[in-house]
Amino acid sequence: MANISPDKSSAASADREPVTSARIPDEVLSSTSELSEQTKQLLSQRYDILYKLGSGGMGIVYKARDRETGEVVALKILKSTLTDDATLMERFRNELRLARRITHRNVCRIYDFNPVGNSACISMEFVDGSSLRELLNRPIRLEVPQVLHIARQICAGLGEAHIQGIVHRDLKPENVMLDRFGGVKLMDFGIARSLDTRSTATGGFLGTPAYMAPEQAEGKPVDRRSDIYALGLVLYEMFTGQAAFSGDTPLAVALKQIRDTPPSPRNLQPNLPVQVEYVVLKCLAKDPARRFQVVEEVEAALDPGATSYGKKSHFELDDLPKKPNETRYLVLFSLVQLLYLSFYLIALAKLDRIDFLTESFSPGLGWPMVILVTLSALIGIATRLYLLSAVAFSYPELGKSFLRIFIFVLVLDEIWAMSPFFLVHRIGFGIAFAATVPLLFLPFSQRTLIVMYFGKGPCGLAVK
After folding, report:
1. Is residue 2 part of a domain?
2. Helix axes 224-240, 274-283, angle to 10 degrees
3. 121 - beta bridge partners?
4. Which of 62, 63, 190, 319 is the most exposed place for a label (fewest CB within 10 A)?
5. Are 300 and 158 contained in the same domain?
6. Beta carbons within 8 Å of 37's beta carbon, 6+ residues apart
7. Beta bridge pairs of residue 179
8. Are 94 and 62 in a shared domain?
9. Are residues 115 and 172 in the same domain?
10. Are 186 and 161 in contact (CB under 8 A)?
């Protein structure tokens, strides 16, 4: 094995342990039972294996002590199915050499990559803590300030990697470590790209479908904006307590990344600041051009001032990712409001005629009917102007506001559905009846349009 010492200035967060044995102790042999005898002996020339930390798709990770430096490190022993491919291993070595250039407090340092018998191992900074996945698996949901603290550190580490020209390609909670003091360390930079050719050749997925950008799922070129999409998925899960997309198979999840829009974060977590929802959804835009273009923009948008509960959000709804058809719902809703506004204005302009008609058909009720029509028209005009103003100024609470006043609007609109009968002397009873029927159902179409826009749309307001 190459004798390359770690950089002590970026040492692991674990305390050093005294150097003891020059071999793998008997008490930890059970934890290394998955390793071949040759691998164990070669490792023992430099490391004391302390215990197994975990295993995954690439191999097994152990906590070990480097006897040459006295540092406690994490050793990742790669599976033989990976190390059998000499071309892959060379590419792996080159990518990890690039990843070593990232020297940031929020990135886990990589030290060595060396062959070990019929396998290979990566030595890296040991983080004394737990993964973000372990934190998310706990029954208690993370508080918003805690998530923001973690998120800004992820952004900082990811931003430094992008400055160095390195795209992670497999950002997920399992690759985010938190130490005992709340510090964040991003892991496994460069590994996903190393496996790119192998993944394509075998028809497998590069990365994890649940945290994969649409362009990545389609096999298209990826860049730092693909990491920003994955960051959005991680943020979504931290803020809401559930993954944005799930399915029975990896392929089903990948297809959802390409085609579907996740449920609104504020539907799942109503107390979430509007600005935070905006950040998450902008990260999750299907079109990379509509996402944040650099991770520093995400970090700035998650600044404590920008995400304060008491501050007004500084974004426009037009900035959010929308499906093309969703704008039509709001346009149709606005047209309905203009139609009713016209009804009310015409009624006020024809009050004398209405008075004459009511006196002709119902003597003695003329003035009460005129007063009722006048009050209804004035209230209706105020209501429609409010709704049209909310649409014009992209008021984010429009969906909830409309549903709160829906019963009132329904009663008002059902009364006005009878207005064609004021003209029965001119148009006849048949036409008046035919005109009344659609007016009776028009109020429900407004509710449908609002639910379709806000319930399924990216604004994600809780309208159910």
Report:
1. no
2. 140
3. 77, 114
4. 319
5. yes
6. none
7. 129
8. yes
9. no
10. yes
Around 379, how many Cα atoms within 13 Å sit in the side-chain half-sphere? 15
Measured between alpha carbons, how far is 437 from 245 in angstroms, rounded to an integer?
Answer: 42
Q: What is the amino acid identity at position 390?
A: A
Beta strands at 119-125 and 110-116: parallel, antiparallel or unpaired:
antiparallel
3-state secondary structure of 430: helix
Which tokens is 390 given? 């909310």
Which residue from 292, 271, 288 is spatially nearest to 280, judged by alpha carbons? Answer: 292
pLDDT band at 11 (very low <50, low <70, confident <90, very high): very low
Region of residue 219 (left: phi > 0; alpha: psi -120 to 50; beta: else): left
Residue 369's Cα: distance from chain center in Å?
54
Tens-place pLDDT, residues 63-74: 999 988 889 999
With contact defined as beta carbons under 8 Å apart, do 70 and 76 qualify?
A: no
Q: What is the number of structural domains in the chain? A: 3
3-state secondary structure of 269: coil
Q: Specify the pTM.
A: 0.61
41 and 159 housed in the same domain: no
Spatial distance between the Cα atoms of 372 and 376, rounded to a whole number of angstroms: 6
Give the residue numbers spanning the domain of 364.
326-456
Kindly state the tokens that stand for 103.
């020297």
pLDDT band at 318 (very low <50, low <70, confident <90, very high): very low
Split at pLDDT 50, 70, 90, the class of 159 is very high
Of 76, 104, 125, the residue that ends a domain is: 125
**Phi and psi for 122 in degrees, rounded to 5?**
-115, 125
Q: Which residues are catalytic, by number? A: 170
pLDDT score recorded for residue 293? 94
CATH number for position 67: 3.30.200.20
Which CB contacts under 8 angstroms, 24+ apart, belong to 62-71?
A: 62/31, 62/32, 63/14, 63/126, 64/123, 65/17, 65/19, 66/6, 66/123, 67/19, 67/22, 68/3, 68/5, 69/5, 69/6, 69/8, 70/16, 70/19, 71/6, 71/8, 71/11, 71/12, 71/16, 71/126
Non-local CB neighbours of 116 within 8 Å, separated by 6+ positions:
1, 39, 42, 43, 77
CA angle 14-18-20, nearest 5°? 130
Instruction: Tell me: do 99 and 163 sit in the same domain.
Output: no
**What confidence tens digit (pLDDT) does each residue in 335-375 have?**
888 888 887 787 777 666 665 655 565 555 556 666 776 77
Biggest CA pair distance of the chain? 111
How many CA atoms, within 13 angstroms, populate the side-chain half-sphere of residue 303? Answer: 9
Asked if residues 250 and 199 have their Cβ atoms less than 8 Å apart, the reply is no
Q: Are 111 and 73 in contact (CB under 8 A)?
A: yes
Q: Tell whether 214 and 265 lie within a shared domain.
A: yes
